[in-house]
Design brief:
Blueprint (H helix, E strand, L loop, with lengths): L3 E16 L6 E15 L2 E14 L5 E4 L1 H19 L1
Antiparallel strand pairs: 1-2, 2-3, 3-4
């Protein structure tokens, strides 16, 4: 008997301020990387799917973005943080 399945883990890459597309108000948005891995006996073995998601903290709406867009958004948030620290 084999016990197999999958598990998804989320990593928050950045938090940025955007205009919420649903409400039309400025709100914080979290950028996540979600990796789904194949598991065997509850041990994650290899990734089978990777998604990048931007989620509004005000209304909870999320939308999938490309890896390039997520990386660019996270890099912009890092630059803004560094400028405020100096």
């Amino acid at each position: 008997m084999f016990i197999w399945g999958w598990r998804t883990a989320s990593t928050m890459l950045a938090t940025v301020m955007f205009m919420c597309q649903k409400l039309g108000q400025p709100a914080a948005h979290h950028v996540y990387k979600r990796v789904t891995k194949f598991t065997l006996f509850f041990i994650p073995l290899f990734p089978i799917n990777t998604k990048y998601v931007v989620e509004c903290t005000l209304c909870g709406e999320s939308r999938q973005v490309s890896k390039e867009d997520a990386t660019q958004i996270a890099a912009g948030a890092d630059q803004a943080t560094q400028q405020h620290q100096h």
